[in-house]
Prior knowledge:
The protein is mainly beta. The protein has one domain: Galactose-binding domain-like (Jelly Rolls, Sandwich), CATH 2.60.120.260. 5% of the residues lie in helices and 51% in strands. It is built from two helices and eight strands, in the order αβαβββββββ. The strands form two sheets. Strands 1, 3, 4, 5, 6 and 8 form a six-stranded antiparallel sheet that branches. The chain starts with 23 loop residues before the first helix and ends with a strand.
Amino acid sequence: MRKRIIGRSEIAQQPPSEEKWLDVERIAEVEVTSEDRNFPIESAVVPVREGSGWRAAEQGEQLIRIILNAPTPLRRIRLHFGETDAARTQEFVLRWSDRRGGPFREIVRQQWTFSPQGSTSEVEDYQVNLAQVAVLELALKPHLTPNNAIASLAMWRIA
């Protein structure tokens, strides 16, 4: 076995602070399959527009794409989902592409069960090393069975 003693200066630094998030409003275009006019996508992806987050206008699977104006390296992706009203199991898939139109590469596929009596919030914070991202895509299936729930996203940040 090989080992070495490391000093405190070698301990990993904390992730970038909130002010390091990219300004999606300035550097990207966002596409959504549907949107409740009271819960626009801007309140989920633009840090200065904190609000109630995004919510779909229709039931079932939804897609959100962040299309960057120029390919950009990404080091961190944070997603925050919340559900306080109904028990449901949600699945999401996060993908990226280095050009518009794909092909897409999967970053993560995750399921989470919300319960009003306990688990009402899911926060995922991914450290990534993506060189030239042109498109980030978030596919949401708000309830595995039946397909009658409304998808929502409290926050999506990239750095």
